Amino acid sequence: AADMGKDLEKVLISEDELQAKIKELAAQIDADYSGKDLLLVGVLKGAVMVVADLARSLHLPVQTDWMAVSSYGAGTKSSGVVRILKDLDTDITNRHVLIVEDIIDSGLTLSWLLDNLKSRNPASLEICTALRKPDAIKVPISVKYVGFDIPNEFVIGYGLDYAERYRNLPFIGTLAPHVYSG
Ligand code: PRP
Ligand code: MN
Ligand code: MG
Known about the structure:
By secondary structure, the protein is an alpha/beta fold.
């Protein structure tokens, strides 16, 4: 694992807990999409680890595709301004689509993405997220698969960054305040 030095405040969700939860979600998804042709849509960059682990835990044959959107830039607060940096390569018309995210914070990114993908007329559209912050939500979103509900703290690791760092931590941790308060 990466050396966190003094930047890590505490481990919120361990690697073992994360991996066990991903396997649980995969079992549900296997059951729910049995006999269907599923497309996983990972939201870059944060969802890379979740997609990689989830896809390998599924027994269903799935396709994967990626969208890159960004609403945070280098800060710690969601701006609500969503930009498409990379669109899907796949035509999702009549496809069963499962959006995979690392975290739902304000919900602004996903609410925008849901509208965008819905307009392309998929056969079905659901969401799987590793983490959700119930106290930070600004737009209600119905999410079918949730790993963990977590407190409203700035979290890093397992794909989640602070200013593009810490994504490669295999666990979810909180950042020591000195890192972002200067
Ligand atoms: C983060 C995270 C989610 C989104 C959640 O992505 O990965 O995609 O913010 O925030 P919201 O619910 O408040 O919209 P970010 O925009 O930081 O891009 P990244 O995945 O490349 O880090
Ligand atoms: Mn993201
Ligand atoms: Mg980010």
